[in-house]
């Protein structure tokens, strides 16, 4: 069941007016269990990002996001954790931006800047905490590219994305970050490289959701430790890194 956890209060998504419904199996997370993707709601970026505005209204200042992603960057291995330093919003090139339509000035300006979308201090904190925990061998930093899904990429698409500067490719996160940044919240995001992007016509590899879930299970404990240590560090410093 999809639930929204706020302190000890647990709300069903179905009980929150206008809240979208998650349809993808296997996306539990710490505070919001059940995620929304472009494919869930007929490419309506506004609806899938509504939770960010709910967070803002609840007084949230910093948003942590995680995702599973394929890796077109040859330096990335399955199981690597990539701190996202920037994104490419591919659906945005076709006009699918979650901020399209009338701007709600109560949240932010009409034309928000995105060159600082992923908070520099939080990225450094992640790398520092990872080093303390002994995670350096699988920590990376890179650019995440969001596509609409739900089909995985063709070989030609993977090659193109790599040449465009994408290190990881997935189906979420960038829309949420755009809306969170519009509302002035700080953003930090991680990609777990759950599968290699297939770049070679002779390869027998095929992207599939089971591999994505399995890689997630294998790294779950370390990811939880990394994020919870970062959150504890932030709390200790009054959210000021
Ligand atoms: O919610 P994320 O972006 O982690 O989920 C990815 C995208 C698809 O839902 C799924 C593909 O296996 O994982
Ligand atoms: O290879 C991928 N492509 C797109 N989305 C994904 N989510 C997990 N792996 C992938």
UniProtKB/TrEMBL annotation:
<dbReference type="GO" id="GO:0005737">
    <property type="term" value="C:cytoplasm"/>
</dbReference>
<dbReference type="InterPro" id="IPR035994">
    <property type="entry name" value="Nucleoside_phosphorylase_sf"/>
</dbReference>
<keyword id="KW-0808">Transferase</keyword>
<comment type="pathway">
    <text>Purine metabolism; purine nucleoside salvage.</text>
</comment>
<comment type="similarity">
    <text>Belongs to the PNP/MTAP phosphorylase family.</text>
</comment>
<dbReference type="InterPro" id="IPR011268">
    <property type="entry name" value="Purine_phosphorylase"/>
</dbReference>
<dbReference type="Pfam" id="PF01048">
    <property type="entry name" value="PNP_UDP_1"/>
</dbReference>
<protein>
    <recommendedName>
        <fullName>purine-nucleoside phosphorylase</fullName>
        <ecNumber>2.4.2.1</ecNumber>
    </recommendedName>
</protein>
<feature type="domain" description="Nucleoside phosphorylase">
    <location>
        <begin position="28"/>
        <end position="231"/>
    </location>
</feature>
<dbReference type="InterPro" id="IPR000845">
    <property type="entry name" value="Nucleoside_phosphorylase_d"/>
</dbReference>
<dbReference type="GO" id="GO:0004731">
    <property type="term" value="F:purine-nucleoside phosphorylase activity"/>
</dbReference>
<dbReference type="GO" id="GO:0009116">
    <property type="term" value="P:nucleoside metabolic process"/>
</dbReference>
<keyword id="KW-0328">Glycosyltransferase</keyword>
